Amino acid sequence: MTNNGFQHGNAAGMRIHVLPTKAFKTFAISLYAGVPLDESTVTSTALAPFVLRRGTATYPETTQFRERLEELYGAGFGFDIYKRGDYQIVQFRMDTINDSFVQSKESLLGESFAFLGEVLTRPLLEDGSFRASYVATERETVRKKLEAIVNDKMRYAAERCIEEMCRQEPYRLHPLGQRSDLDGITPASLYESYSAWLDGAILDLYVVGDTTPEEVEKLVLRHFGRSHKQVEAYASNFKPVTVSEVRTVEEKLDVNQGKLNMGLRTSITYSDDKYASALMYNGILGGYPHSKLFVNVREKESLAYYASSRYDGHKGIGTIQSGIETQNYDKAVDIIRKQLEELKAGNISDLELNQTKAMIRNLLSEIQDSAFELISFDFNRQLSGKDRSAQELLAQVDSTGAEDVKAAAGTFQLDTIYFLTGKGE
């Protein structure tokens, strides 16, 4: 069952992706709504799904909303908000048991569509806007989530590094928005921005389970039929950034342990044929416990409590995260830079190559065991416009040699060094 098992179509202004399979006992439904990251809308877009999950026209009270999920044999409902490239994405998920496993008069897939369609398009309204008490409570929910990032210094440093590095790009924005915007959002202004968001979003609906594209299309037209807009696709507006000089930013807060983060730019993105080499580069640099950062910075030199790296293939950015004693700053920067140079020089052992391939192979083969992982892999394809199955990516990773990783390393340029240090230093 390859990622190409998805059958694609359009209905009611959204793209529809169906994977007919009997491999799972449930139906997995995912609806992605993506809009460009924008300072003026980022917070209201993030707040809307929190309010939508509180009640709908038919189930106005939150208890009724939850009871309805129980009636659907304990169906799961949730959402996530994140960014991919310069887009802010809201993903709604439902997980419903397949009808053949329960005694149900109605089609549970149909009932789930009715529920999701209502959550999205028929929210509870009072005097033409959202219920004030729901908006007030959920504003606090989002505020607490944003405050939790500031209190978790590891996450805070990672966010601040991106903010500094991308200070002139939409990507600097956190997908949950900005605390300073929350107080200004009213029930009426939130309803207005929700309507604009729904009309303007790129919509992708996924279903994995024992169904057909025809059945899903009928359900979409019945339950999401209000949309007559054009079906849109994601635009790739990626432009490689050339780094002229490395920028260093130091911030003082009440912390016991220094957080040293670095941001790198690369021209390689998800849609690039060299994507597998960039994945290997990140894996050897700091993606896994056998990586250069972990072994050299943490184990051999005992300079860091943690040291790892990440690669965002939709944005062409690599990041390094480490926690160090403040007095070890210079030493830590030197040794991390040395690992970057080692990779650029192609100093990569067969063991590093093989262990990294094994780790990536495990991750890619696990995708087949989870309906939502299959969905998320295919959604990367919709986002990037790159048609590449998990099997194809695996084959590309397997055939990646030290020279390919060295070539990828040559495209990663250090852009920003961010250091969070204690006030008493």
Task: Give structural notes.
With 425 residues, the protein is α+β, with helices and mostly antiparallel strands. The chain has 2 domains: 3-223, Cytochrome Bc1 Complex, Chain A, domain 1; 247-422, Cytochrome Bc1 Complex, Chain A, domain 1, CATH 3.30.830.10. It is 43% helix and 23% strand. The longest helix has 20 residues, at 132-151. The chain is globular, with a radius of gyration of 23 Å. The chain starts with 6 loop residues before the first strand and ends with a strand.
Run of helices and strands = EEEHHEEHEEHHHHEHEEHHEEHHHHHE
Tell me the strand order in the biggest sheet.
1-2-8-3-5-4
Total number of strands: 13
Please give the domain count: 2
Q: What is the level 1 CATH name of the largest domain?
A: Alpha Beta
Radius of gyration: 23 Å
Distance between the termini: 56 Å
Which structural class do you get from the secondary structure elements?
alpha+beta
CATH fold group of the largest domain: Cytochrome Bc1 Complex, Chain A, domain 1
- Let me know the largest β-sheet: 6 strands, mixed
Q: Key terms for this structure?
A:
425 residues, six-stranded mixed β-sheet, 2 domains, globular, Cytochrome Bc1 Complex, Chain A, domain 1, alpha+beta
Secondary-structure topology with pairs:
Blueprint: E1 7-11, E2 14-20, E3 26-36, H1 42-52, H2 62-71, E4 76-84, E5 87-97, H3 108-121, E6 125-126, E7 129-130, H4 132-151, H5 153-165, H6 179-182, H7 187-200, E8 202-209, H8 213-223, E9 247-253, E10 258-265, H9 275-287, H10 292-300, E11 304-312, E12 317-324, H11 329-344, H12 350-366, H13 371-384, H14 390-398, H15 402-409, E13 413-422
Helix pairs in contact: 1-4, 1-7, 3-8, 9-12, 9-14, 9-15, 10-11, 12-14
